[in-house]
Amino acid sequence: MKNNRDVILDVNDKPNLLMWIGLSLQHMFSMFGSTVIVPLLVGLSPNIALFASGVGTLLHILVTKRQIPAYMGSSFAFIVPMTALMKTTGYPGIAQGVIAVGIIYLIVALIVWLVGSEWIDKLLPPIVVGPIVMVIGLSLAGSAAQNATMNNGHYDLRFVAVALITLALAILFNTFLKGFLGLIPILLAVVCGYIVSIMFGLVNLHAIAEASWFAMPKFEIPFLNYHIHLEIGAILSIAPIALVTMTEHLGHIMVLDELTGRDYIKDPGLHRTLTGDGLSSIAAGLLGGPAMTSYGENIGVMAITKVHSVYVLMGAALFAIVFSFINKLNVLIMQMPLPVIGGISFLLFGTIASSGIKILIENHVDMNIKRNLMIVSTVLVVGVGNFSLNIFWWLPLSGLAVATLLGIILNVVLPHKE
Predict the structure, then answer these.
(1) Of 81, 93, 212, 354, which residue is 20 to 30 A from 346 by alpha carbon distance?
(2) What is the pLDDT of residue 245?
(3) Rounded to two decimals, what is the model's pTM?
């Protein structure tokens, strides 16, 4: 452990019951919007995605020996192929692709276990890791701004007002509140932002009132809800993207390393983190959900609150599973106005980007050296600008993936001495 002196609750610390509930709810609220928007865009059941995220998180924590405080949620990387498949093969085809994604993760995890992960330290020194972590936070800035300003494609000053009020409250709560309330500033800001949104007329209260209290999630289980017919095309359209999301996975592990003062690539090992991600996607595919990935929103919450307890993430996962059956609460949360999410995201995503700056500073990276300047500059602009490569239709590379590859290549190729 290192740089971990100011942590309020460390990874293996257990909070008391009241604190546990509040902190876990805070994490559930933080991931909820992104986790349910993926199935809504694709045409899947949001309740199943919520249930799968809870199960996937518990699996990931179990596989990583309760050492990594990561939350698994719906991955945005697979939206395009899943939307296309929904119109042709339906969910059975998507399920095969999602399960194949998990299997690819398991295969790579096996290779890492056999070969080792020492090569990662050479490929990803601080000069590469720092800007990649910054890109993870900054590349999401556009999404936050979009949520904070646009109402069905139109600029809405009410959205702007709610987003700024939510952001201001999150900053004030985080700065001035002490004790238990000081540990849940994000949750408090979300609740207050929701109330402000009601005052601005941005919440459909009628839908909440009319919703039934309980409803069974619409599971899509093979052999039980549908017959399996091998869909090679569906598998080939989804599975290769796993190679891209692995770079995002690695980036999140780097952020967690910096945040918790540990080296998760060595202990419990990259093979375990990859296995956790893979099993979560396989579980989602067997239940009826989308592919899973670790969530930056929850990393941002941990960075702000300095609460890294894995038990808090387990509590959030259990709440997600329970809430997937409570329909009225689902409707209540699904009515969460986008500007509330946008306002909170300004802080969460910015905190992740700041962690990248911290990596460069703490490792004394000298930006007066041309080599360092070339690497950081290239990674930042390519990643934040989302310079994607779609050379092969089955393997589109996101801006983050391209930036990661360029950072690695430049670090290997450029001479250390001018």
Answers:
(1) 81
(2) 77
(3) 0.75
